[in-house]
Amino acid sequence: MTQQTWPAIALARACDGPARVPFVLMDEGGPVLGSVAVDHLDALREWPDAFGRVDGPGGVPRALALRLPAPGRDARLAQVHERLRAQGLIVAWRDEPYPLRDRHGGEHGTIERAASRFWGTLTLGAHCNGWVADAAGRPSHLWIARRSYSKPTDPGRLDNMIGCGVASGQAPREAVIREGWEEAGLEPAQMAGLVTGGLVDLECDIPEGRQHERLHVFDLRLPAGLAPRNIDGEVHEHRLMPVAEALARAAAGELTTDAALATLDFAVRHGLVEPASPPSGSTLTRAQRQAFEALRP
After folding, report:
1. How far apart are CA 23 and CA 51, in angstroms?
2. Do both 197 and 131 map to the same domain?
3. 3 state DSSP class of 172
4. What integer best gives the mean pLDDT of the chain?
5. Are residues 108 and 148 in the same domain?
6. How far apart are CA 182 and CA 174, in angstroms?
7. Pick from 173, 165, 146, 157: which is nearest to 213 by CA?
8. Contact assessment for residue 295 and residue 9, using Cβ atoms and an 8 Å cutoff
9. What is the spatial distance between Cα 241 and Cα 90, in angstroms, rounded to a whole number?
10. pTM
11. What is the pLDDT of residues 150-186, one digit of tens each?
12. 65 and 29 assigned to the same domain
């Protein structure tokens, strides 16, 4: 394979969007929930009961505090989020409940999934690499999905066989098994061989706001002849790609950032890519390998 760069490694830490300030619980000494764009602070003045702006010298914003006590917090935030949605500040609405987490994973309520990007709060993702082995048991092919062209985020982009967010009350493995049926038509019994892979942390600016996600990676070896089939309409197609092609497409930026990192995690664990310095025929430079390892807590 020719030398490639992996843009997903840099994109996972590309916080180069509008300026943001910390979003904290109750006061500056409370847990950091996430961050909010400075450009959105004026819109949030509409709810002085819910938010308090913390300014530094010269009136420069330093943080935004969530003032709502736990009782009634979810309901009040739901009202705020509906209003922000109407204003076009929260986009790609999902009607899916997600925990309102702080940066360490503590839960402080429940919010709409799309609002997590507005606030830059921590979410959990779960992706599954579907692979087929050669006669020696080594990965020879990967099942790569193409997202539906009507998806609210990354329409038409290439993705892993299964990729999902982890909703309230679910563990990452449970989410993958649920989506295994919806996205790939796989029964739970067909996913009994699900293997836990790596863990990758992303924190980056995206069109919807700030993505702070802890991505749980899983692998599932499928027998030759078993083809995924989408059930819920969120996947346009699944294609069985030779490993070299799948890695080249991931390295070229054709997969979503999450999916490319999950694919790279699979490739590193299975010895399909090696660091090279200076660059040679490997898909990872040594510097890229170090940057990727820094994403894996």
Report:
1. 10
2. yes
3. helix
4. 93
5. no
6. 13
7. 165
8. yes
9. 36
10. 0.92
11. 988 899 999 999 999 999 999 999 999 999 999 999 9
12. yes
Residues 229 and 127 in one domain: yes
Say which residue the tokens 């530094």 belong to. 56
Distance CA 170, CA 146 (A): 25
Which residues span the domain enclosing 109?
20-121
Q: Nearest to residue 122, comparing CAs of 134, 111, 136?
A: 111
Domain-embedded: residue 2:
no
Contact of 53 with 88, CB cutoff 8 Å: no
- What is the chain's alpha carbon radius of gyration, rounded to the nearest angstrom? 20
Report how far apart, in Å, the C-alpha atoms of 237 and of each of 153, 154, 181, 227 are: 17, 15, 15, 11
Q: Is residue 275 part of a domain?
A: yes
Region class of 185: left (phi > 0), else alpha (psi between -120 and 50), else beta:
left
* Domains: count for the chain: 2
**Sign of the dihedral through C-alpha 60, 89, 79, 179:** negative
